[in-house]
Amino acid sequence: MAEEATNGASAGVAISGVLVQVSVPASKAEEAVTFYKAAFGAEEVRRSSCSKRKADQEQPALLCAELKIGSASFLICGQIEDSTVVKGEVAPVLIRVQVDDVEGAVSKAVQAGAQLQGEISEDEAACGGGALGKLVDPFGVSWAVIAPAKVTEVEA
């Protein structure tokens, strides 16, 4: 027998939003920001840098940058010694990007350094039956570049 689902939690805690945090080695954080700008046209909203820097660094190390693709924001954070990310444990996360031109978006991401996994296909797995391109970026993050299925009128 199916259980009844209850949406939401008690009104005691107000959650104002959710941001995906992509953690990369601290030495690769700037490279990651540059990649997401080139591959997906990300816009940098804000950043925070570490006030301490090593003698060989020209600029302070990037701690975290908030990027925006379309209407969605996410964080790129450099992993440091006391990072909140548990090393050695990986959660299966896939970031979906919805576009009008899957081939064009995938091509741009590949030119920036992403790897296409398989071929672009018209696939039911795209949750709507549209075109789907699967990518893995240079930092190990999986991306699904999708276009919604074209709507056709059904003749009566």
TrEMBL record:
Residues passing through the membrane, by range: none
InterPro entries referenced in this protein's UniProt entry, alphabetically: At5g48480-like_C, At5g48480-like_N, Glyas_Bleomycin-R_OHBP_Dase, VOC_core
Domain VOC span(s) in chain numbering: 18-148
Coiled coil: none
Domain of life: Eukaryota
Name of the featured protein: Glyoxalase/bleomycin resistance protein/dioxygenase
